[in-house]
User: Fold this.
Amino acid sequence: MDWDSAFPKLVPRKWLENKPKLRLVLEVASVVMLLNIFAFMLGAFLVGGSAWGGQVIDGRYFVGNHSELTEVSRAAYVYSQWHTISTMVMTPLGLLLGLATRKRAA
Assistant:
């Protein structure tokens, strides 16, 4: 089963084919969203985890990585919270945009 038969009305392909500037914007957006995923992974690696698995204990901020906590500054923790949320929102959106703008096989 391919995308077109699974979701025939979800993406108006003919409409996108006639709008090259829109297609370019959507392609750039999907690449930006992919880069966001890599930036999230790099950031989590550098600080020792993400706020998703972390916690605040007695005014001290911890990021978590597989139940292992690493203390970080409040700024690093807040950054991690926002980057985690943006990645969770942008990842499925980027996948859908990538599928929507992919070119058909000839």
